[in-house]
Amino acid sequence: MRVFASVAATPAERQGPLAGDQLVTDADIVMDRAFTLPGSPEGAWPWLVQLGKQRAGWYLPRAVERVLPPSRRAARSIEQRWQQLRVGDVIPDYGGRHETFTVAEIDPPRTLVYLSRRGRTMVSWSITLHPAPPAAGGQRTRVRLRLRLAPVRHQRLARTAGELLDLLTIAGMAAGLRERLDVYQPLVNR
User: Fold this and answer.
1) C-alpha to C-alpha distance for 116 and 187, rounded to whole angstroms
2) How far is CA 114 from the centre of its chain?
3) Of the residues 45, 133, 148, 177, which has the fewest C-beta atoms closer than 10 A?
């Protein structure tokens, strides 16, 4: 399906190192995703830095969000209150009532790495932005995401159900971000 192919990392992207790889060195599970957004990394960065539960939410396309209660829909604008993020900040996560991510590394507008512990499993989530070759519409940004987990007790379940869940959530987020960036192009992208 096209929507899932749109978040597939290339073989080179899957093999190349990313910031945060050192946080979960002997990962049992590694999930790589990548997608391209319109505009520059500087234009995409504010959207990604405000991601999260009790923040801007998890971006989904308008057609999907229509079925959600208004209080559960993601932000459709950049909110200054969520733009200040520092190493050590704790962000609530949708993975469970008490689950969180801690900012482990941040280098605007290129790198954001989160770290979390789920039971005995360490989880790192790296988001990196790079300029992509320009298209007819102008600048573009390649967003790479890597989730690393270890130790993972039920690896087969993580490789099937976990991979599917990750694929669905990242495909939804990528589509929601593209929709927002097509509508809201900050001056930095022009």
Assistant:
1) 35
2) 10
3) 133
- Give the predicted TM-score (pTM) of the model: 0.90
- Residue 153 burial (CB < 10 Å; 0-12/13-18/19+)? exposed
> Is the model more confident about 1 or about 105?
105
The pair of structure tokens assigned to 46 is 């504010």
**Predicted confidence band of residue 4 (pLDDT cuts 50, 70, 90):** low
Whether omega before 109 lies within 30 degrees of 0, making that bond cis, reads yes
Task: For residue 176, give the nearest of 68, 67, 72, 61 by alpha carbon.
Answer: 61
Query: Shortest CA distance to 140 belongs to which of 79, 112, 179, 181?
Result: 181
Residues 130, 33, 182, 61: what is their CA dihedral angle, to the nearest 10 degrees?
-160
Using CA atoms, how far residue 73 sits from 50, 52, 85, 125, 167, in Å, is 14, 12, 22, 23, 20
- d(C-alpha 130, C-alpha 128), whole Å: 7
State both tokens at 82: 């969520």
Neighbouring-strand partners of residue 102:
90, 115
In degrees and rounded to multiples of 5, residue 99 shows phi and psi of -80, 140
Q: What percent of the chain has pLDDT over 90?
A: 73
Amino acid, single-letter form, for residue 134: P
